[in-house]
Amino acid sequence: MAAMSDPMMQDKNQELVGMGLRVSVSPVQTAFYIMLVMMGIVGNAIVAGVIGKSIIMDRVGGRNSDIIIINMALSNLLVSIMRNTLLVVSDVGLELYSSKEWCQFLMGVWVWLRSVNVWSTLFLSAFHLQTLRRVAPTIGNLNGPRGIPQTLLLSIGLIWFLNYIYSIPAHIFSTNGNVNTTETLMLVSSTTRPLLGCVWNFPSSFSGLAYATTSMVIHEVIPIVLMAFTNLGSLYTLYTHGRTRSSVQDAPVIKRVPAERRAAKVILALIMLFIASWGTSIISVNYFNYNSGSSAEFLLVIARFANIIFIAMSPVVLAVGHRRLRSFVKSLLSH
To answer: What pTM, to 2 d.p., does this model score?
Structure first.
């Protein structure tokens, strides 16, 4: 942002390397972060590849939930490739710089992908709740619709488009810093520390904090609250289905309860993992923005790892609960 300040050059825990304020991390932390990044890339690539192949080979077009899972995995994968790999390069000590134009492009892409990542995860949770609340699907719909519904594709496209609109300020209000500038504002959806010398460049401190606050409320807090409500709704719906199971044993929706219960557990675990990681990152980054005290550096390290936990661990959770992924992992391990 515009109100950038010179760093304390004597601070032993802070080092300027042309990428803004760099928080020192131990070799163990660096190795752990690299492992998480690799897990995110490999795991989400496997999820997208295995489920994508099954949809292509499935003559009825695959299940809608699988398409949404692929969308979420692709957003995770793109975040890992476009940002987290660059953070790894920075961690190993390679100093990289970007021009103002590249910084504007990259900051916009980072905000866009992270935003899509949030709303794609919420979409999965909301879609599953809607599926559970179907009263009695017809026999023809038990194995999924014929082909991919246009409404589903339109919804996914809308997520990407609207979040691109949200990312436009990141294209405009960012620039490349230099060796004597440091970041004074961070967003969960873009940075937990400067990268490639790219920093925010809002006209004033007030406008920067206004954008950060608006982003926190609309883009970060609201999705988490909605995820919590949709998962509570899913659990309640399953509970009511279970109570009517004994009296309506032959109803199609009741026969699907065990499978839907397993799917609900997987999605619940995914959302809990997301809320824990994203919520930790929100608290840490906003503490830095509004109260940069002595513990700010520690919290930024926490935020850095919190941002990668969901991306790295979500494929593991899916592999436990998704039949095709579980079969693929078993066959991979058996060889």
So the answer is: 0.80
